[in-house]
Amino acid sequence: MARVVVDVMLKPEILDPQGQAVQRALPRLGFDGISDVRQGKRFELEVDGPVDEAALARIHDLAESFLANTVIEDFTVKVEEAAEVAEAAK
Amino acid sequence: MTARIGVVTFPGSLDDRDTQRAIRIAGAEPVALWHKDKDLKQVDAVVLCGGFSYGDYLRAGAIARFSPVMEPLIEQAKAGLPVLGICNGFQILTEAHLLPGAMLGNDHLHFICRDQRLRVENAETSWTSDYRAGQEIHIPLKNMDGRYVADGYTLDKLEAEGRVAFRYLGLNPNGSLNDIAGITNEAGNVVGLMPHPEHAVEPLIGTGRTDGLPFFTSILKKLVNA
């Protein structure tokens, strides 16, 4: 089994009030020097079978049509290596 | 014979009963449609009502857009079936790309619920012909994700083609670009807006006015005279 990660972010030109609210809270918490925060979504897909080109193409379609709304969001698809998955599980 | 207007209920829809009631008050026959229906029961028009379909998970309207009932709805809307999307229904119509742009969280991050002043900008759609262009109306507004956004090209096109159907008056309640409260597709059969006309059809409740009723009388006249 392999894991494919889809990250979805609002496009740079779209106002992100949630990210701004997080950013504004930082000085109060003692975190200085962070000038901007943008908040996105991360999807971890556990894929049965091999993550070959065909499987990645299908996941790309899924991200484009459903996980992200490309009118307002950009997305990236990446395969997480087995070692990283094991590390994350520790 | 009167017109039959479908109202779709998704898991999490809130305003289906009020919408059916508004349709009845206008003199048409409401027809309940279920999100799992694979056909539209030969209705003459459809309203997608307000609420939080599928809990607004992923994005407002994003999951409802792939419901079985949406397949014939999208196909027939493209062929001219009149469709009105109110609030969550508007969000579903943008997710289904029947209307351009997208809806995002209010810029102030709060749920908003108030009587809202609007200007009718386009009184020539299937759902707005009983208004006058430029008319001011008061109807309730209640939502979390009411910020309309679209890229510059799309906004310019909407403005140039008179496809901004409703605009907020007074303070912009959610950060919508160009104060947009509602838009129409090119053909004028698909209209979406955030405020709730179905809550303003009787003097006793809502804003105390019946400013929302012309949505439902407009479509009835269009269908009966067709």
Automatic annotation (TrEMBL), chain A:
Which GO terms fall under molecular function for this chain's record?
ATP binding; phosphoribosylformylglycinamidine synthase activity
The highest taxon in the source lineage is Bacteria
- Keywords assigned by UniProt? ATP-binding, Cytoplasm, Ligase, Nucleotide-binding, Purine biosynthesis
Gene3D superfamilies per the UniProt record, alphabetical: Phosphoribosylformylglycinamidine synthase subunit PurS
Q: In which pathway does it act?
A: Purine metabolism; IMP biosynthesis via de novo pathway; 5-amino-1-(5-phospho-D-ribosyl)imidazole from N(2)-formyl-N(1)-(5-phospho-D-ribosyl)glycinamide: step 1/2
Catalyzed reaction equations: N(2)-formyl-N(1)-(5-phospho-beta-D-ribosyl)glycinamide + L-glutamine + ATP + H2O = 2-formamido-N(1)-(5-O-phospho-beta-D-ribosyl)acetamidine + L-glutamate + ADP + phosphate + H(+)
HAMAP family assigned to the protein according to its UniProt record, in alphabetical order: PurS
Q: Under what name is this protein listed?
A: Phosphoribosylformylglycinamidine synthase subunit PurS
Which source organism does the UniProt entry give? Streptomyces bungoensis
Automatic annotation (TrEMBL), chain B:
Q: What does this protein do?
A: Part of the phosphoribosylformylglycinamidine synthase complex involved in the purines biosynthetic pathway. Catalyzes the ATP-dependent conversion of formylglycinamide ribonucleotide (FGAR) and glutamine to yield formylglycinamidine ribonucleotide (FGAM) and glutamate. The FGAM synthase complex is composed of three subunits. PurQ produces an ammonia molecule by converting glutamine to glutamate. PurL transfers the ammonia molecule to FGAR to form FGAM in an ATP-dependent manner.
| Keyword Membrane in annotation | no
Q: Which PROSITE patterns match?
A: GATASE_TYPE_1
Q: Name one GO cellular component term.
A: cytoplasm
Q: Give me the gene this protein comes from.
A: purQ
Q: Which GO terms describe its molecular function?
A: ATP binding; glutaminase activity; phosphoribosylformylglycinamidine synthase activity
Task: List, from the UniProt record, the residues annotated as the active site of this protein.
Answer: C87, H196, E198
| Top-level lineage group | Bacteria
Q: Where in the cell is it found?
A: Cytoplasm
Taxonomic classification, please? Bacteria, Bacillati, Actinomycetota, Actinomycetes, Kitasatosporales
Species name: Streptomyces bungoensis
Q: Name a single GO biological process.
A: 'de novo' IMP biosynthetic process
Which controlled-vocabulary keywords does the entry list? ATP-binding, Cytoplasm, Glutamine amidotransferase, Hydrolase, Ligase, Nucleotide-binding, Purine biosynthesis
Per its record, how is this protein called by name? Phosphoribosylformylglycinamidine synthase subunit PurQ
Outline the subunit composition: Part of the FGAM synthase complex composed of 1 PurL, 1 PurQ and 2 PurS subunits.
Pathway assignment reads: Purine metabolism; IMP biosynthesis via de novo pathway; 5-amino-1-(5-phospho-D-ribosyl)imidazole from N(2)-formyl-N(1)-(5-phospho-D-ribosyl)glycinamide: step 1/2
A Pfam family that this protein carries is GATase_5
Q: Which reaction does it catalyse?
A: N(2)-formyl-N(1)-(5-phospho-beta-D-ribosyl)glycinamide + L-glutamine + ATP + H2O = 2-formamido-N(1)-(5-O-phospho-beta-D-ribosyl)acetamidine + L-glutamate + ADP + phosphate + H(+); L-glutamine + H2O = L-glutamate + NH4(+)
